[in-house]
Amino acid sequence: MSMPETGLDPALRQQVVEAMAAVLGRLLDTDQVITEDTRVLEELGLSSTLGLEMLLELEETLAIQIDVELMDPVDMKTVGDLTTFIIGHSRPD
Question: Which candidate, 1, 9, 6, 10, places its Cα nearest to that of 34?
Answer without folding.
Answer: 1
